[in-house]
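Example for tutorial group B:
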C-alpha cells in the first residue's frame, strides 16, 4: 500500500511536470497577408523571436489571410480578445487615431524608416497617449509615399478631374477633392475588385502595398509623387498584455523598441522598391513622376488640408510641429 506521504509527493511531482504546459498562453497573430508572402515571413520571424525569448510561457500562433480579421474589424477583434496581436491601418479605424494620422500627411515623410522612427518618438513622448489607452503598439510605421495607380492613362495626369479615386481616410479624401477627383472609400483588400469593376478609376497606395494586392493586374499607369500614405501598427490590447506571465511580458517588451519600429519602416521601403521594379520594367505599364513644378503646385493645393488637419484636432498643431521636428532631425 502506498503511504499518504508518497501519494502527496506523486501528485506534487505530476503538477510540477504539467505546470509549464498549463502556464503557456497562446497568442493568435493575424498577418492578413497571403501565405508565404514577404509580409508573412517578416511577421513570422518576429513571432519566432518572441516565442524563443518567452521560454515556453507564450506561443504566438500566426495565421495568414483574412479568415480571422480584416482591416475593417481587426482593431475590435484584438480589443475583444478574439485574436491577440493584430496589424492595423490607423486610417481605417474610424475616429480612434486622429493624431497618429500625422505620419500619413503629404509632403512631410521622406521614407518609411524615417517616418517610423519619428512616429515612435512622438508616441514615446506621450503626445499620442489618448489614442493608445486600450491598445499597446508593438511597432509603428507609415508606408512609403503614396502614388496614384490608374486603370488607364488619364487625359491630364497632373490632376484628378472627372475621376473616382479610392480613399482610405478623411485626409486622403480631402487631398483627392483638392485635385478635382471624387473620393470613394475602399479598404485595401477591396482595391483589386474596385479597380477591376471600375468602381474606381484609380487608387492611391504605396508601392509597398501594391504587389500584395496584385494591383499590377488592374492598373497600368502610375503617377509618383510625395503624396500622403497610410500609417500602420502591430498591436495588442493592454489588458491582454498585462495578463501574460512575467517572462512572456518581458519577451515582448524587449522586442518593442525604436530599433524594431525602424526595421518595420525599412522593410516597407524595401518592399516598395521590389514592387516597383518589375512594373517600371514592363512594356504594359508606364511610370511617371511629377515634375518639380507640378509637385510644388500639388503641395500648394494640399497646404489648406494640412492646416485644417492641425486645427480640427485637439493637440494637432503640437503633434504636427513635433513630427516635423523629428523628421528634420532624422534627415540631417
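The residue assignment follows.
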Amino acid at each position: 500500500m502506498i503511504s499518504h506521504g508518497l501519494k502527496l509527493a506523486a501528485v506534487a511531482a505530476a503538477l510540477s511536470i504539467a505546470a509549464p504546459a498549463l502556464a503557456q498562453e497562446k497568442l493568435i497573430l493575424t498577418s492578413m497577408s497571403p501565405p508565404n508572402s514577404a509580409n508573412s515571413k517578416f511577421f513570422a520571424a518576429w513571432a519566432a523571436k518572441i516565442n524563443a525569448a518567452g521560454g515556453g510561457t507564450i506561443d504566438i500562433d500566426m495565421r495568414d489571410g483574412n479568415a480571422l480579421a480584416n482591416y475593417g474589424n481587426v482593431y475590435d477583434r484584438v480589443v475583444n480578445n478574439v485574436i491577440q496581436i493584430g496589424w492595423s491601418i490607423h486610417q481605417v479605424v474610424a475616429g480612434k487615431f486622429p493624431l497618429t494620422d500625422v505620419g500619413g500627411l503629404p509632403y512631410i515623410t521622406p521614407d518609411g524608416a524615417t517616418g517610423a522612427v519619428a512616429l515612435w518618438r512622438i508616441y514615446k513622448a506621450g503626445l499620442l497617449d489618448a489614442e493608445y489607452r486600450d491598445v499597446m503598439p508593438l511597432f509603428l510605421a507609415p508606408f512609403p509615399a503614396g502614388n496614384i495607380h490608374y486603370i488607364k492613362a488619364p487625359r491630364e495626369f497632373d490632376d484628378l478631374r472627372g475621376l473616382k479615386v479610392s480613399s482610405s481616410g478623411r485626409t486622403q479624401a480631402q487631398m483627392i477633392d483638392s485635385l478635382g477627383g471624387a473620393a470613394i472609400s475602399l479598404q485595401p483588400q477591396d482595391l483589386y475588385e474596385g479597380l477591376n469593376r471600375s468602381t474606381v478609376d484609380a487608387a492611391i497606395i504605396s508601392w509597398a502595398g501594391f504587389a500584395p494586392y496584385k494591383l499590377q493586374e488592374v492598373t497600368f499607369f502610375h503617377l509618383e509623387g510625395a503624396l500622403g500614405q497610410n500609417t500602420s501598427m502591430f498591436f495588442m490590447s493592454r489588458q491582454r498584455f498585462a495578463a501574460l506571465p512575467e517572462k512572456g511580458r518581458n519577451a515582448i517588451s524587449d522586442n518593442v523598441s525604436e530599433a524594431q519600429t525602424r526595421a518595420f519602416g525599412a522593410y516597407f521601403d524595401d518592399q516598395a522598391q521590389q514592387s516597383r521594379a518589375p512594373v517600371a520594367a514592363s512594356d504594359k505599364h508606364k511610370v511617371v513622376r511629377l515634375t518639380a513644378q507640378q509637385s510644388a503646385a500639388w503641395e500648394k493645393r494640399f497646404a489648406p488640408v494640412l492646416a485644417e488637419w492641425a486645427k480640427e484636432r485637439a493637440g494637432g498643431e503640437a503633434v504636427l510641429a513635433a513630427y516635423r521636428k523629428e523628421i528634420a532631425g532624422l534627415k540631417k
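Residues 180 and 297 are 14 Å apart (CA to CA). Compare this with the pattern of hydrophobic and polar residues in the output above.
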